[in-house]
Fold this protein.
Amino acid sequence: MEIIVNLDVMMAKRKVSSKELAKSVGITEANLSLLKRGKVKGVRFETLAAICAHLNCQPGDILEFRTEEE
């Protein structure tokens, strides 16, 4: 089982750059890059809410749960 991060897909759909999103959310571009690659152990709800507000999307548009069978 794993959580797949589709943040880069949603950013591309919305035509939002990493620099713009990081500034809007209040995190560094380096931390945003780690999040996009799924290299973080967790994300604060506050950060997730800010990302969703800027991208006008739902958390489920960014995060996906996959089981081993998929």
In short: Residues 26 and 34 are 15 Å apart (CA to CA). DSSP finds five helices and two strands in the chain.
